[in-house]
Amino acid sequence: LSATPAASIAAAAGSPFVRACRRQTVPHTPVWFMRQAGRSLPEYRSLRGDGSILAAIADPAVAAEATVQPVRRYGVDAAILFSDIVVPVHAVGFGVDVVPGQGPVVERPFRSASDLTRLRPLEPAVDSPYVAEAVRLAVAELAPSKVPLIGFAGAPFTVASYLVEGGPSRTFARVKSLMHAEPGLWTALLDRLASMAVAFLTAQVEAGAAAVQLFDSWAGWLAPYEYEQWVLPATRQVLERVASLGVPTILFGVGTGELLGLMGGAGADVVGVDWRVPLDQARRRGGGGRAVQGNLDPALCVGPWPVTEAAARRVLEEAGTEPGHVFNLGHGVLPETDPGILAELVALVHAEGRAGVTEGGRTAVAG
Ligand code: CP3
User: Fold this and answer.
1) Residue 86 has pLDDT above 50, yes or no
2) SS3 of 292, please?
3) Closest ligand 1 atom, CA of 34?
4) What is the per-residue pLDDT across 101-130, written as a single tens digit (0 to 9) for each?
5) Coil/strand/helix, residue 156
């Protein structure tokens, strides 16, 4: 492991991905895919076998290899660490497992103030040292290609939703009930999860992650007043504390069309958008001053290619020519996606993206 974390972060500052996050000019539109590491890749399936995903995450060599696989396969402009949003709560012993085809499942859901004792502060070096080790291995592997690594954490609300509901939910009835009925307990829960997210993200950046994404996947199930009152403060706290690390931050959620104004003010450099809001409108709703990431419908990546191509061209059109677009899907890659289609998609975005793209890479690097 040659380069220091600080050196790899400095090197990443010139990458198209980091430059687009900062709304600087780029030689081509950068692209990566949420859930690019995963079951759509045959090499991932053979690496992983049938074991628990939390065990794979806790094995730095396996996690680093799963992180780098999509870069080799697709030529994407960023890698995302192979991990999960429930790793910190799992690491402090809250009692979480991840069930294949279902998602996180909690043995004893969060119900009352006494459950706060099961959420002690995360000490990454002691509780989850395998995360920083996987980051270091992946960053070393990526160094020759100069592809930056994105670290990530679950946002307080989305992690809380699993802890309170006990697993995936369609209604979020229990978590909404707790938020409305016991605002003091709710705030205490979100404060703890915010601190854990900061610790988790800091450890990843200190190990060499060149950007971070906060996944608030289920925030779109909230009304704007709920988001503003009970979720935004803890989210903002995470983003503000992470900002001092000096790497770009991305805030993403699904179904957040009505929340984009609030999310744009949460402190992230980039706002992730799903496929429901055209990017030109998303840029306006985000209040300007932020880059956007997205937003091809993952369902349209299943193919056939002409369907994917037409939809991708529409996204590029809506992204326009102003700097600050990171191409992505509107949510994660579906397991049934043909990897060949995603490889073609990367080539199309590199050739046709126009947001902040200058003629010839050299001018771009100076811009
Ligand atoms: O490629 C990447 O995006 C990096 C790895 C990554 C995983 N989880 C690995 C994983 C990332 C960024 C996550 C984040 C995550 N985990 C989120 C936020 C992103 C989103 O999708 O909104 C959420 C909500 C979770 C919780 C979670 N973990 C769910 C809902 C599932 C799916 C269950 C299933 O099997 O469909 C998981 C499991 C999981 N995490 C898988 C992967 C690759 C799939 C299961 C496996 O390979 O065993």
Assistant:
1) yes
2) strand
3) 3
4) 899 999 999 999 999 999 999 999 999 999
5) helix
> How far apart are alpha carbons 139 and 132 in whole angstroms?
10
Q: Sheet harboring 291-296: ordered strands across?
A: 79-80, 149-154, 211-215, 249-252, 270-272, 291-296, 325-329
Q: Give residue 101 CA to ligand 1 midpoint distance, Å.
A: 10
Distance 265 CA to ligand 1 centre (A): 27
Of residues 249, 247, 173, the one with CA closest to residue 207: 247
Between the CA of 164 and the centroid of ligand 1 the distance, in Å, is 19
Bridge partners for 271 per DSSP: 251, 292
SS (H, E, C) 23-54: CCCECCCCECCCCCCCCCCHHHHHHHCCCCHH
Substitution candidate for ligand 1 out of 35, 41, 68, 150 with most atoms within 8 A of CB: 35
For ligand 1, residues with CB inside 6 Å are 34-39, 53, 80, 82, 84-85, 98, 100-104, 152, 215, 217, 332
For 220-259, the pLDDT digits (tens) are 999 999 999 999 999 999 999 999 999 999 999 999 999 9
- 3-state SS assignment for residue 258: helix
> What pTM was estimated for this model as a whole?
0.96
What residue spans of 3-128 are helical by DSSP H?
A: 5-12, 16-21, 42-48, 53-57, 60-74, 87-91, 124-127
Position 11 pLDDT exceeds 90: no
Question: Ligand 1 centroid to 35 CA: how many Å?
Answer: 7
SS3 251: strand
Alpha carbon distance 343, 108 (integer Å):
42
Residue among 72, 85, 102, 293 to mutate when testing ligand 1 (max atoms within 8 A of CB):
85
Residue-wise pLDDT tens digits, 143-174:
999 999 999 999 999 999 999 999 999 999 99
